[in-house]
Design a protein that fits this description.
Elements: E1 49-50, E2 53-54, E3 57-58, E4 62-63, E5 67-68, H1 70-75, H2 77-83, E6 86-87, E7 106-108, E8 113-120, E9 126-132, E10 138-142, E11 153-160, E12 170-172, E13 180-186, E14 191-197, H3 200-214, E15 218-224, H4 226-229, E16 232-237, E17 244-247, E18 249-257, E19 262-276, E20 282-285, E21 296-301
Parallel strand pairs: 6-9, 7-11, 10-12
Antiparallel strand pairs: 1-4, 2-3, 5-8, 8-9, 8-10, 11-14, 12-18, 13-14, 13-15, 16-17, 18-19, 19-20, 19-21
């Protein structure tokens, strides 16, 4: 699932939405280092603590590891994404979710529900994990990804245009590195469909045109593709033959706001900061060079009126 980047509100049209600048977060600070050797965490989200000794004995334990920020993300996903860097590298869905096939890429959204959790180290990324729907967290539809070779399209259909207060109101998917995310209106039942289009940067526009011809019930509502987030970061990847320029990627998700009754696609540009950490995923950073895009893109998905 390649690497990804993130982008903000612009002029609204069926394919592009409003864009706005996202403030660059404050410079990350390193978490405090315990003086005594802690017990190694069982996983990347277990929080080790340190105990400092005061005048009258040990003081209260102070958390030094990842903090659970799931509620912050749930209360205001758009604001949280503007001010925090989301990381979905190596975030696998729970086992048992259905996956489409090359000749039938969509699965029912009602069968692709996960629980999203977010944990953040001081000054670091907000790492998202996708867990079984029965566990605590943010209910969301998981948009699967099919790697190149097993079908470039993978999607979910039957997403309500206006989810109820108790319905999932978020779509999550894996990192974008040359991929695209499309939102469609389905004129047959007035619902939304979403698709993760793998390796869009190779021949995506022509593939999408062919896909639309084969699915006349769908109408393209919005697209996030490499034009919105991919930019050369100044590095050359020598592992390819021939070597190629390394580009920024993006973390993408969609969210329905109950107050405004509006769906939005969000893409947050990112670049690799360092290698894999204790939870098996690299630390990301906002690109630190002149950007051709806003660091976070918000594209509105039009809501169609009911048929007459």
């Amino acid at each position: 699932m390649k690497r990804f980047n993130i982008g903000g509100l612009g002029n609204i049209n069926p394919f592009r939405g409003p864009k706005m600048d996202a403030p660059r977060p404050s410079t990350p600070t390193s978490p405090s280092v315990p003086t005594a050797r802690p017990t190694p965490p069982r996983d990347g989200f277990q929080t080790p603590t340190t105990t400092s000794r005061g005048l009258f004995g040990p003081s209260a334990s102070k958390p030094t590891g990842p903090q659970n920020v799931t509620d912050d993300f749930k209360q205001n996903p758009m604001g949280f994404a503007t001010n925090n860097l989301l990381n979905v590298f190596n975030a696998e869905p729970p086992p048992g979710l259905p996956v489409g096939r090359p000749n039938a890429p969509f699965v029912p959204a009602s069968q692709s529900i996960v629980s999203v959790n977010a944990h953040q180290r001081p000054g670091g990324n907000a790492n998202l994990t996708f867990n079984p729907a029965t566990t605590p967290g943010i209910p969301a539809h998981y948009l699967p990804y099919e790697p190149q070779g097993s079908g470039r399209f993978a999607g979910i259909n039957g997403v309500p245009q206006r989810p109820g207060p108790n319905d999932p109101n978020m779509i999550v998917t894996g990192q974008l590195n040359g991929c695209a995310v499309h939102a469609f209106h389905d004129k047959n039942d007035q619902t939304l469909s979403f698709m993760h289009h793998a390796n869009y940067s190779a021949n995506g526009p022509n593939e999408l045109e062919g896909f639309m011809q084969q699915n006349p019930n769908l109408r393209l509502a919005a697209t996030l593709d490499p034009k919105d987030y991919a930019q050369w970061n100044g590095k050359i990847v020598s592992t390819y033959d021939p070597p190629r320029k390394e580009q920024t990627g993006a973390t993408a998700f969609a969210h329905f706001d109950q107050r405004t009754q509006q769906w939005s696609l969000v893409a947050q540009m990112n670049d690799i900061k360092n290698g894999a950490g204790p939870d098996g995923r690299p630390e990301l950073k906002r690109p630190d060079f002149n950007l051709a895009h806003q660091p976070t893109q918000f594209l509105q998905i039009p809501i169609l009126p009911p048929p007459l």
